[in-house]
Amino acid sequence: MQSAESLKKRIEMEQRNDSKREAPSGTATIKLGDDSGSGEILVFTSLCNVYKVQKKEILDKVQALQKIDLEPGERPIYLTGEKRYKGFLIVAFENGKIGKISMGSYQTEYARKKLKSAFNSESRLIFIELIEQDIDLVSMSSIKKVVVFNTSLINAVESRTTKGVQLMKPKDGSVMIKVSRLENTKLADPEYYRKSDSLNAIGFYLKPGDEV
Predict the structure, then answer these.
(1) Taking the CB of residue 27, how many other CB atoms lie within 10 A of it?
(2) Which one of 73, 161, 166, 200 counts the least CB within 10 Å of its CB?
């Protein structure tokens, strides 16, 4: 078993190497969320499980990886505090769909250490993040179409295995390849790509010089 320090160094190195990538189930990168104001660390994995570790048992959230027993072939993809189970978990998939799961659906009466079916498994996960309030996100398809939207356009659900709603409409066999926070992109005119009324869009071609 790796030491907490070696795990931490590995994660930091992976984050430096993949600082512009947000495809949690397609890479070895472990995405780290904020754990302030939380009593538990949630470890979401490539097999759609979520493990819970009490913060009082560890010095930092990286050490949570030492407290869980992963299944064969399973790897952690996202570590975050539970934020007292307030807010929403945003999950986006390669098939162009996006879900907004109420964090209360992950809360249990007893201190369970593992929950199965933490998110839908029908399409490859490309984005996962706990948000406390609605934010602007940017999505991009394999044909370089881009959509800027606010998560307020997505209705929150209690079902952890929601398939989500159609964010990007496929065209000529395209798939959604990336979702990022707006502030982590380089768009000269973000409003050009904005969908402010509804989703299910093909999007707009990425302009020269813009980066998602």
Answers:
(1) 14
(2) 73
Does residue 212 lie in a domain region? no
CA distance 23 to 77: 9
Phi, psi of 8 (to 5 degrees): -65, -45
| 171: in domain | yes
pTM > 0.85: yes or no: yes
Is position 84 within any domain? yes
Residue 68 to residue 7: CA distance in whole angstroms = 13
**pLDDT tens digit string along 160-179?**
999 999 999 999 999 999 99
Sign of the alpha-carbon dihedral angle for 163, 102, 175, 116 = negative
Closest-CA residue to 3 (of 60, 72, 54, 50): 60
C-beta separation of 121 from 160 below 8 A:
no
Q: Which of 70, 179, 160, 74 is nearest to 119 (CA)?
A: 160
Full residue range of the structural domain in which residue 51 is found = 4-205
Confidence band (pLDDT; 50, 70, 90) for 197? confident
Q: Give the residue from 100, 93, 98, 120 showing the smallest Cα distance to 167.
A: 98
**Is the distance from CB of 104 to CB of 85 less than 8 angstroms?**
yes
Q: How far is CA 204 from the centre of its chain?
A: 23
**103 belongs to a structural domain:** yes
CATH code (residue 67):
2.120.10.90
